[in-house]
Amino acid sequence: MGVVERCAYEAALHEVYGYVCSNFTRAEPRRRAWMYLCHLVNAPDDEPGRRRHLASYDREQRADGAQRLLTSAQWDEQKVRAELLELVIARFGGVGGALYLTEVTFPKKGHQAAGVARQFSVESRRLENCQLALVLLHRSPNGAVALVDAELYLPRTWAGDVDRRSKAGVPPGLAYRSKSRVAIAMVRRALGAGLSPDVVLASLLCREKPLLQSALRTVGLPHFLPLTADELARVRHVSEPNRMGFAEGFAAVSESEQRRSGWAYHYANGRGPLSGAAFAALSAQAATMGRQWAGVREDVKLDRYEVRSWRGWNRHLTLAMVAQAAVELSRREDLAAESPAADVLEGRWAV
Questions:
Q1: Which tops the pLDDT comparison, 44 or 310?
Q2: Distance, CA of 295 to CA of 143 (rounded, Å)
Q3: For residue 269, what are the CA distances in angstroms to 216, 336, 347?
Q4: What CA–CA distance (Å, rounded) separates 265 from 61?
Q5: Which of 338, 298, 309 is nearest to 40 (CA)?
Q6: Rounded to the nearest 5 degrees, what angle is found at the Cα of 108, between the Cα atoms of 305 and 137?
Q7: What gap in Å lies between CA 283 and CA 297, rounded to an integer?
Q8: How many CB atoms lie within 10 A of CB 25?
Q9: Residue 322: which residues within 8 A CB-CB, separation 6 or more?
Q10: So what's the pLDDT on residue 242?
Q11: CB 195 within 8 A of CB 170
Q12: Cα 133 versus chain centre, distance
């Protein structure tokens, strides 16, 4: 970020952090959290091999205090997320717009970090040793994008490994859930917190995608899902007449798009006719959200964390959500005033 952008970010961060900082009851973690948030967007350019922890002070040689912020300091990351979402709704709007669900991987060399396993990365299109997470973004009708939820995926190999789970601090009651089940829980949390989107756009590679399809239909949310050829067969198999009066349809993607993304078909479900224009507009909106998600990853250093525990990862992502809200707030004057698919969403795709 440039000097002007940095100043705008810090000004916005004062507002956003002021809304959630009461959760840091002690002065030390409160200062550490502020430092962490500043560096999530403007990390110091340290020499290779001498990279400091994001929450380290200038003259510190050890990262003990910074590590405590993410592991043992007394603050409730779930409460911070809840209060942050209240602010996002108040500042950007919670009615209308779109929710965007996607997955992200964090390559890792070791095997001790929570949830790390050899898994398929949709980003590199190959198997990698990595952590995998689902993220949920909300785009308001005026174009503001906010990272509103993130959850680490727990692979099957971790489900019954009591010793490994204990060392990584995985909650004892957390069982294996497919990506679709995690996604359903995230959407329900967003709706329960006050978001009321016009449509859900998802980009997930998951064998149980029909579960997500069914859950979104049950709560009356129009949705748009890209599918592989294998997923198409499973989704068609469970398709049934919609009792809520929704129409559904499938469309094949172009060969160039299939080579680029790996998706073979698009599936849409919503009120009103599913014309070619409706599919094209929803596809364009999903592509826009994908590009905006890439921008979020560039603005906020989601990959830069140095903790192995389940709680440490969740706390890092919580602070990243705070930082991203401040970045978006600092850019409000430059964003477009309306959603790119507003003409499709209005009327024909209203919930």
A1: 310
A2: 14
A3: 9, 27, 15
A4: 53
A5: 298
A6: 55
A7: 21
A8: 11
A9: 16, 17, 20, 37, 80, 84
A10: 52
A11: no
A12: 8
